Amino acid sequence: MIRRVRFTGERAGYVQKLSKKGWVCKTWEGELAMVSLPGTLPEIFYFTVPDDQIAEQINQSLGKRVTLTYEQHLGIPTTCFGETSYFVTKVRLVE
Hints:
This protein is mainly beta. It contains 1 helix and 5 strands, in the order βββαββ. The protein has one domain (5-93): CATH 2.40.50.860.
């Protein structure tokens, strides 16, 4: 039996990649570069966007600092739902 555990959280940084992937199941997959100090290597947060409207908001904010609100779902049986277990539910531009 597969258990689905759900966590929520936020990550802030710069979206450096967002693309629609898949042959049969199309999903939005992205990368958020999180920089703690200038001049250091960023940590990359890989995420999935299930909603086309949220994906469009992220595309409009490329190059700007954003905060992504996400839910983590563990134990999803296929990649048809997304390549990661982190599903973005909200995007907010950081001024």
